[in-house]
Specification:
alpha/beta, 17 strands, 5-stranded parallel beta sheet, 24% helix, 6 helices, 7-stranded mixed beta sheet, 292 residues
Length: 292
């Protein structure tokens, strides 16, 4: 049986933790799902945040936030989210499990740096896609490739396999980080470039091998805030998730806060937006006669 929560928060940085502190204190069942990675942890010294009387490392501040949530008995699961779907309620799909919620908050930071392999940018919308759920239909009975080497790439390949003629995972010189059973070819050769005419149609590797493809799905690293939002249909503007004054996206019941919404990339902004999202969700769930 799938566990049902009032709120599921994806991300354990300042935005996600701030949301959880409010929703939990507001009496809502709250789950944080996090890969245990935050951009905050990369900060060497932080001395410009209110209430800090001595410099702290990002790692130290990150741990303080986690400890705050744990003291309130917020449930925290370390796992990788690969997809959010809505079927009368939100379902959050992870590598190891599946959860349900009335509201979902994306707080996983800014979008990742996109791969710079020659040809990817040129063929975006011309055979290059960043969302298998969105675009698999257009590649029925076609030979497609997935660029990536982890769980996210495997997840995209699983979606494409029943639709496409063939699916190949290309790791661009990396070793596959997971060995889940998936009956697709894996090429670990380093890539030189992607080529085509009106649309992408082949990849050349640095060992001079060439492989014909009809489409490429980019899925490097883990699914980012933009990936998750795009898959469920939320509007993306200038590589940021579009939100309203309550931090709600264009998908009703789906919220976003922190670096993924754009603007200044500061802890204070992430905390404010997390607070706003938490308070908005509390008000809505307590005042709606049939909450979503």
């Amino acid at each position: 049986m799938i566990n049902m929560y009032d709120v599921i928060i994806i991300g354990s940085g300042p935005a996600g933790i701030s949301t959880a502190l409010y929703t939990k204190r507001g009496g809502l069942t709250t789950l944080i799902i996090s890969k245990g990675i935050s951009s905050l942890q990369k900060a060497q010294k932080i001395g410009n945040y209110y209430g800090i009387d001595k410099e702290l490392s990002g790692e130290q501040l990150y741990k303080i936030g986690l400890d705050q949530a744990k003291k309130l008995e917020v449930e925290i699961v370390e796992d990788e989210v690969t997809q959010i779907i809505y079927e009368n309620e939100f379902k959050v799909i992870t590598v190891n499990s599946e959860y349900a919620a009335k509201k979902v908050v994306i707080a996983t930071g800014a979008n990742r740096k996109m791969p710079t392999i020659k040809g990817i940018k040129q063929y975006e919308g011309k055979g290059v896609s960043y969302c298998a759920v969105c675009d698999a239909f257009f590649f029925r009975n076609k030979d497609v490739a997935v660029l990536g080497d982890g769980n996210y790439a495997i997840h995209e390949a699983e979606i494409l396999k029943p639709v496409a003629k063939s699916v190949t995972i290309m790791t661009n010189g990396k070793k596959m980080t997971e060995n889940r059973n998936l009956d697709v070819d894996v090429l670990e050769d380093e890539i030189r470039e992607f080529r085509g005419t009106d649309k992408i149609n082949e990849v050349e590797f640095k060992n001079n091998k060439i492989k014909k493809i009809d489409g490429l799905f980019v899925a490097e690293g883990i699914a980012t805030s933009i990936d998750l939002a795009r898959k469920i249909g939320a509007v993306i503007e200038e590589n940021n998730i579009k939100v309203d004054e309550n931090m709600e996206t264009t998908v009703k019941g789906l919220y976003a806060c922190g670096d993924c919404t754009g603007g200044i990339l500061q802890i204070s902004k992430a905390v404010y937006e997390g607070t706003k999202a938490g308070l908005s969700i509390i008000c809505l769930l307590y005042t709606s006669p049939s909450p979503r």
